Amino acid sequence: xxDTLLANEPLIRVSFFLSVLAGMALWxxxxxxxxxxxxxxxxxxxxxxxxxxxxxxVRLVFPVAAVGTAFMxxxxxWGLLNLVSLPGWLAVIVSVLVLDAAIYFQHRLxxxxxxxxxxxxxxxxxxxxDVTTGLRFHPIEIILSMAIKLTxxxxxxxxxxxxxxxxVLLNATSMFNHGNVRLPLWFDKYLRLLVVTPDMHRxxxxxxxxxTDSNFGFNLPWWDRLFGTYRAQxxxxxxxxxxxxxxxxxxxxxxxxxxxxxxxxxxHKEARLSVRE
Length: 277
Known about the structure:
The structure is a single chain. By secondary structure, the protein is mainly alpha-helical. The chain has a domain at 2-31 and 40-182 and 253-263. It has 14 helices and no strands.
């Protein structure tokens, strides 16, 4: 089973990725939450090309990805869960929870540390909020994120199955909670008790700093509530709120070349920067 999982892991991840991307794209066409001023042909090619660059960067820097690292930890007895006796199913659940909490704290760190924010702000600088926003991360941020993830996998001794489940969940929920999709308000109220919903995460993409610095969860919503970073709704409502950050608001800033050099460009809105710097 181990060899089969390792051999099929890329196919599993790509299959889920394409299925969720296609499903969310169709959902956005038929039940959009907000009207979009900037068309998909302007934004999507650049956002999707970032995914290709991110994938190449990770493969180049980390020949052994998270699942391979989990196999190494298991074979060598590395990590906490390889030192204690837990049922396999419980080790998987614990690992998924710990990895999700790690991503939450990583996300907070990328907002709190100025030079990390410069990398992460590319994600926030999208002027619309839809499924491809959930894929838009700077390659350097992706490399740092993978390094953090591998460290957690090694320290925890997470089972390979848990890592596959987590990777698929994280990717799928990122596309889901960035979706420009409409859910019944009563359903969203209860669904966000179990998973981060688009209305919950959209608050995080507000141009208002105190809203940007809230709702950090990507998958499970409990960390925000537990650690005091939960904000139920945007101040100006979902239709009235402004998406993005103040420093980069032109259509030219959505181009791939501008996205890649953005962390190295100066920010001009000192009021916003002063919150972090």
